[in-house]
Each structure stands twice: as structure tokens, then as C-alpha cells.
């Protein structure tokens, strides 16, 4: 057993979830990244290319020639770039969460020792279900926001747990969604607060990586204004801005790792409150050792 082993199957307060999330990443970051590179490396590169293309297509919206000719939306380039980014994001998101959660599953089963082959095999086995569950949970949350903001926020909380339930409990997609609502019952507010704080932390970190692109954009806009060339706003979206913005997006996508790890801690916290499986396992192990 790893001397620095972090027990997942126990109740935690919000502060403990945050501290243990970063402690787990400090201890396992390099190993986890090496596995993610194998499972998600190619989709990550494709996602960055799609993001760069989307930024480029967005810049065409401000091109005065396109606006004058009415070709801003007619070319379909913006729609194609958006669709490409959404598809690659869904695949990368599913692979990232699947890899992180299967890594944690192997970590728990072997008390801190990771079998990377078991992780990659688990990701391959659950990939289809993860993508399907991602689409379904995304649609549920999306329609919740469409009809009213409050239902969307309410649905976001249980839907954030579905990947953990799928991987750790090996349930069907329908049972996974039902279990997600059962877990947050009477625990919705504290779960929402946890995800909200984690989201704020990730947003603050990602904002730091966005600063170079923002500085360049404001500098370019200020220069254009002083030179009286502000009529062509698309000039801001040059290759330098696209590169800086893509790097900022890359950092944001990588930060999803924090979200995936914290979601596992949130899941086990709720599962212990509802089912106390970790406590029962500890009692059982003590009985066998006597």
C-alpha cells in the first residue's frame, strides 16, 4: 500500500474535498498525465485545431468585406467550425473524464498502485457509454436552462456526477441518471456549493492563461484606433491572437482534470452519506485481519 495513499471512500467537508483534490494531483499528476497522453492526446490536438479554426471563423464576422457582401453567415464556415469544436470537445471531455475516473478506480482497488493497462482498457470499454451519457446529460441540462435558468442549475448538479457513477458503479445509462438524483437528494445545496467553488477556482486559473491574448487584443485594438483603422475589427483576429487564444483554451481544457478528480471526491462523499460502503469495507477488513 502507498504510504501517501488518499482514502476516497469517506465523508468530507468542502474544504477537505478541495485540499484532497490538489493533494491527489500533486502525488499522481505526472503518472496521470502520461496515461492521459495515451488516451486523449490525439483528440486534444484535434480539439485545439478546431478551437483555432473557430477563432479564425469568428474573426470573419468582423470583416467589413464579408459584412458588406452579406457573407458572414452564408459561407457556413462559422457553423462548421463550431460543430467541429463541439464534436472534438465532447470526445476529449469523455476520454479525459473516463481516464481520470478509471485511474482513480485503479488507485482505490490497488491502494495507490496504478495498473495503467487496466486504466486504458477500462476507458476503451466504457468509451461508448461515456459519450452517450455525456450527450444525454448535456441535453438534459441544456433543456433545463432553455426552459428556465433555475431548472438548468438544479439539473447541472446531479448531471455532474453521472460519469463517476458510471465508472465506479458500472451501472447502465438510465440507472446512472436515476442514481445521480438519488445521491443529491437532501444534499443538493452543499453539492452545488462544492461545484461552484471548484468552478470559481478553475475559472481564476484559466483567466491567468487568458491574459496574454487579452493584452494583445486590447493593444491591437488601441493601435488600430489611434491609426484610425478601427473600421476593420477583423484585423485583431490575426495569427498571433489565434495562437495565444488557442494556448489559453489548451490550459482551460487541461484544467478539466481538476474538475474530474474533485467530482470523484464529491461522489464518494455523497455515497458514504447515503450507503456508507467505505465504512462497511473498513469494518469488514478489520474483521478479517483479526
Identify the overall geometry: globular
Low-confidence residue ranges: 286-290
Rg, nearest Å:
22 Å
Order of helices and strands: HHHHHHHHHHH
Relative strand content = under 5%
Largest sheet: none
Total strand segments: 0
How many helices? The count is 11
Helix % is over 70%
Distance between the termini: 19 Å
Q: Decide which structural class fits the backbone.
A: mainly alpha
Mean pLDDT score: 85
Describe this structure in words.
It is a single chain. With 290 residues, the protein is mainly α. The protein is built from 11 helices and no strands. Helix 3 (77-109) crosses helix 4 (116-147). The chain is globular and about 65 Å long. Residues 286-290 have low confidence and may be disordered.
Amino acid at each position: 500500500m502507498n504510504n501517501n495513499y488518499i482514502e476516497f471512500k469517506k465523508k468530507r467537508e468542502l474544504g477537505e474535498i478541495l485540499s484532497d483534490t490538489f493533494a491527489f494531483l500533486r502525488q499522481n499528476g505526472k503518472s496521470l498525465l502520461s496515461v492521459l497522453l495515451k488516451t486523449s492526446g490525439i483528440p486534444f490536438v484535434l480539439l485545439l485545431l478546431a478551437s483555432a479554426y473557430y477563432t479564425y471563423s469568428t474573426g470573419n464576422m468582423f470583416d467589413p468585406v464579408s459584412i458588406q457582401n452579406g457573407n458572414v453567415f452564408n459561407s457556413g464556415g462559422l457553423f462548421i467550425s463550431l460543430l467541429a469544436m463541439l464534436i472534438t470537445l465532447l470526445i476529449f471531455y469523455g476520454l479525459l473524464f473516463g481516464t481520470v475516473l478509471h485511474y482513480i478506480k485503479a488507485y482505490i482497488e490497488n491502494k495507490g498502485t496504478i495498473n495503467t493497462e487496466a486504466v486504458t482498457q477500462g476507458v476503451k470499454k466504457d468509451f461508448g457509454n461515456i459519450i452517450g451519457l455525456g450527450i444525454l446529460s448535456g441535453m438534459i441540462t441544456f433543456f433545463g436552462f432553455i426552459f428556465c435558468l433555475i431548472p438548468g442549475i438544479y439539473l447541472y448538479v446531479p448531471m455532474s456526477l453521472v460519469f463517476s457513477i458510471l465508472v465506479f458503479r458500472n451501472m447502465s445509462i438510465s440507472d446512472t441518471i436515476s442514481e445521480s438524483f438519488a445521491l443529491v437528494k437532501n444534499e443538493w445545496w452543499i453539492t452545488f456549493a462544492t461545484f461552484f467553488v471548484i468552478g470559481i477556482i478553475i475559472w481564476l486559473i484559466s483567466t491567468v492563461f487568458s491574459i496574454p491574448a487579452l493584452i494583445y487584443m486590447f493593444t491591437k485594438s488601441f493601435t488600430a484606433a489611434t491609426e484610425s483603422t478601427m473600421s476593420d475589427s477583423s484585423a485583431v483576429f490575426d495569427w498571433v491572437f489565434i495562437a495565444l487564444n488557442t494556448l489559453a483554451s489548451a490550459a482551460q481544457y487541461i484544467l478539466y482534470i481538476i474538475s474530474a478528480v474533485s467530482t470523484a471526491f464529491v461522489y464518494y462523499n455523497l455515497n458514504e452519506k447515503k450507503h456508507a460502503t467505505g465504512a462497511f469495507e473498513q469494518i469488514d477488513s478489520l474483521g478479517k485481519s483479526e
